[in-house]
Amino acid sequence: MAPRSVIAAAAALTLAAGAANAGIVLSGTGANGLSGEAEFTLVTGTQLQIRLKNTTGVVPAGFQGAAQILTAVGFDLGAAGNQASDPTITGGNVKVGPTSFSVNFDVQSKLAGDDVSGEWGYSNTAQSGQLANYIAAMAAGTTGFGGPNLDGPGNLDGPQGGLISAGSGATLGGLGAVENEVVITLNLSKSIPNLDFLNRGARFEFGSDAFFLDVQIPTPGAAALAGVGLLAAARRRRR
């Protein structure tokens, strides 16, 4: 897949009433129409939950097939960049979200609450255009969560297993995917007190380096940019 541009977009921020560690939603839409959403909840100091959703409406021209699949979300748990003392992801699981289901998996269909960890992995290596820590259906730099192989080869080989938007009627050319959302539960190497790391934003990936969407919490004076894509050239190549 030829690398495309990175789009930076202001993110929507929602806080659950009175809770600084729950219900923070980062979302954004690129100028091309690809869109994603991630809700972060700190379950305990060492357990982070992410509800990851493909919110794309009409799939844009040039992104049919694999390129429309939301395959990863990245963030930076510690200080900016990779620092030896930063918290890291050590494991976890991925389950089909509410009202969601698998499409084209080699095995029987997976429904809400079913485990699809075998098609996802985690990384703390900032590889392949992602941020310091990321969750991906892609193989590059990732360690699989483990679990039965549900689609394709036994090793991670995304973008199959990633997310398509609800009701998109996507044509995937034989690739498997989950429609709508997954719920990711992560175990961390050390306790974090809150979700302040989200002040540095998050990064969604579609396809295999097909498109990156950076989402940020709006800052004073930047509200007018909310939801508007800012083009920044970025060349990346995945091995």
Summarize this, please?
By secondary structure, this protein is mainly beta.
List keywords for this structure.
239 residues, mainly beta, 8-stranded mixed sheet, 5-stranded antiparallel sheet, disordered N terminus, disordered C terminus
Shape: globular
Largest β-sheet summary: 8 strands, mixed
Number of DSSP strands?
A: 16
Q: Over the alpha carbons, how many angstroms does the gyration radius reach? A: 16 Å
Count, helices = 0
Poorly predicted ranges (pLDDT <50, ≥5 residues)? 1-20, 220-239
Structural class computed from helices and strand pairing: mainly beta
As a percent range, the share of strand residues is: 25-35%
Task: Give the termini separation.
Answer: 11 Å
Q: Percent range for helical residues? A: under 10%
Give the quaternary arrangement of the chains. single chain
* Number of individual domains: 1
Care to describe what's here?
This protein is mostly beta strands. It has strands at residues 6-10, 24-29, 35-44, 47-54, 70-75, 89-96, 101-103, 121-123, 133-136, 143-144, 163-164, 177-179, 181-188, 202-206, 211-216, 230-232. It is globular, with a radius of gyration of 16 Å.
SSE order and pairing:
Blueprint: E1 6-10, E2 24-29, E3 35-44, E4 47-54, E5 70-75, E6 89-96, E7 101-103, E8 121-123, E9 133-136, E10 143-144, E11 163-164, E12 177-179, E13 181-188, E14 202-206, E15 211-216, E16 230-232
Parallel strand pairs: 1-15, 11-12
Antiparallel strand pairs: 1-16, 2-3, 3-4, 4-13, 5-9, 5-14, 6-13, 7-12, 8-9, 8-10, 14-15
